[in-house]
């Protein structure tokens, strides 16, 4: 068993699809399958159950998953610390962010936080909430920006240190009718443009009333669907402000809104000196 096989397993656990996992690991599916079998042989028990229709983790696979994530993270941390001790650490940083925040908030935030004092190479990854979590778990991103409801943090985020770096509001928005009034009002019969479970907004907006017409991972997709008159979308104001200002969208309700924090996550383990400087600057802003 080697680290690259564990990384193979993490990719399979993320996609639950051998073809997509093999593509993500830049190898053929037969080669990828052989590597998963070799890992299972080394551990001594199957980690996945595969049928013609689906792939699931076995009970052993589910138990192995958090350990596998920790092993990959520890290997990344060990390399970072060794390079720093040798004076060879590079000023690089990978920041993951959900799609909804990548369009507007993150660029503005970076202009204030990632200036000359923290000059270096920045890799910005925009993806779904769940995919960003996987990047953090595998040690492929040092920071992750997302929305968070005002209640208790989800269990998946409790493994990280978190600070609040902004506020946002989720608003029910829809296209206007010919008189400029909302085409729909929120309610159990209103057409709802909802979020898929992979989106971080899915958990925040659970319980919102409406007849689900479509689910999307992307808030930007729901924004465009709302503009075309397909239903009500609960959208972050940071994303939808321009559409509101132009009149392409209007508030479906003057009173309904969900306040949320914009938060920055990082591992609890110490990062490189460069990343720690960025974190300190973010915390002080």
Tell me what you see in this structure:
With 285 residues, the protein is an alpha/beta fold. It has two domains: 3-68, Arc Repressor Mutant, subunit A (Orthogonal Bundle); 90-285, D-Maltodextrin-Binding Protein, domain 2. The protein contains eleven helices and eleven strands. The chain has helices spanning 3-15, 18-24, 29-43, 59-85, 99-102, 105-113, 129-137, 200-204, 219-227, 237-246, 273-284; strands at residues 48-50, 55-57, 92-98, 121-127, 143-148, 160-174, 191-195, 211-216, 232-236, 250-251, 258-267. The strands form two sheets. Strands 3, 4, 5, 6, 7, 8, 9, 10 and 11 form a nine-stranded mixed β-sheet that branches. Strands 1-2 form a two-stranded antiparallel ribbon. Helix 1 crosses helix 2 (18-24) and helix 1 (3-15) packs across helix 4.
Highest CATH level, the class of the largest domain: Alpha Beta
> Would you identify the CATH architecture of the largest domain?
3-Layer(aba) Sandwich
Regions with pLDDT < 50 over 5+ consecutive residues?
Answer: none
Oligomerization: single chain
- Structurally, how many domains make up the residues? 2
Radius of gyration: 21 Å
What fraction of the residues are assigned to beta strands by DSSP? Answer: 15-25%
Written as H for each helix and E for each strand, in order along the chain, the element string is HHHEEHEHHEHEEEHEHEHEEH
CA-CA gap between termini: 44 Å
């Amino acid at each position: 068993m080697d680290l690259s096989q564990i990384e193979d397993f993490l990719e399979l656990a993320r996609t639950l699809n051998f073809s997509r996992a093999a593509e993500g690991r830049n190898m053929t599916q037969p080669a990828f399958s052989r590597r998963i079998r070799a890992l299972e042989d080394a551990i001594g028990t199957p980690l996945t159950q595969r049928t013609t229709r689906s792939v699931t983790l076995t009970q052993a696979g589910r138990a192995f998953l958090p350990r596998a994530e920790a092993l990959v993270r520890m290997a990344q941390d060990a390399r970072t610390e060794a390079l720093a001790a040798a004076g060879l650490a590079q000023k690089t940083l990978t920041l993951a962010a959900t799609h909804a925040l990548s369009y507007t908030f993150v660029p503005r935030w970076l202009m204030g936080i990632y200036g000359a004092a923290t000059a270096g190479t920045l890799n910005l990854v925009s993806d779904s909430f769940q995919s960003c979590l996987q990047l953090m778990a595998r040690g492929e991103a040092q920071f992750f920006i997302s929305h968070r409801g005002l209640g208790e943090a989800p269990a998946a985020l409790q493994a990280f240190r978190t600070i609040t770096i902004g506020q946002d509001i989720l608003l029910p928005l829809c296209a206007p009718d010919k008189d400029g009034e909302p085409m729909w009002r929120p309610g159990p019969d209103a057409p709802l443009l909802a979020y898929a479970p992979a989106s971080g907004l899915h958990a925040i907006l659970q319980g919102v009333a409406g007849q689900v017409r479509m689910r999307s991972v992307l808030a930007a997709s729901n924004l465009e669907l709302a503009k075309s008159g397909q239903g009500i979308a609960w959208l972050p104001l940071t994303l939808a402000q321009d559409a509101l200002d132009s009149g392409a969208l209007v508030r479906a309700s003057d009173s309904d809104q969900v306040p949320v924090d914009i938060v920055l996550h990082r591992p609890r383990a110490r990062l490189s000196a460069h990343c720690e400087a960025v974190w300190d600057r973010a915390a002080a802003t």
